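Hi U.,

Before I forget, here's the chain from the pilot set. I'm dumping it here mostly so it's searchable later in email.
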Amino acid sequence: MTTIGFIGSGNVGSTLARLAIDAGHDVILSNSRAPETLQDLVTQLGPRARAATPAEAAVTGDLVVVTIPIGAYRQVPAEPLQGKIVIDTLNYDPARQGRVPEIDADDTPAHLLLRTHLPGSHVVKAFSNIFFRHLATLGRPAGAPDRSALPIAGDDIAAKRAVATLIDSLGYDTFDAGPLAESRRFAPGTPAQHAYLDPDGMFAAPGRPASADHLAKLLATQGTP
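Structure:
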């Protein structure tokens, strides 16, 4: 059993929290407002969930998931995340979330922005290429023929191993895409971002399983920088 802290409790965060609780983990939820604003969600999730501030979620979580609009990355508390494994789910979507000047100026690539903000943390990119409704429904038991894989990327082998263990408990295999810089290969606009989408129905349709082999082929289309 692991305690997972969440900085951000929107669609992705609440979906992951439900999956984590179903897998036997405890969750600590936070948002940019106040813990009491999460009481309805905590009640729905049950006794394994509680609400806290982002700093409390950072301190208490064995792993910490950051799932907020990317432009709000400065709100992630760096000091309590020193030495922690941080799962980065963030994508850059200017049309929906607004523009981030440092990304647009090419100072920092979007897929490396959180690591730049958290130099003392072990950042692993995960859960960033799957629609939250598909994430909620595509999980399968280990060994199932239609089990999907999720790509991860990170610079610390032990951190990636811990994230892969979590992902396995949620019902997914893992495909290790390599160092964190290689998460560009499953960033928005890449084929891997559509790995689980039915092209006829896209986000309105049920998700389609995607194996590790299928992901490997999609990621390979991005080649080298």
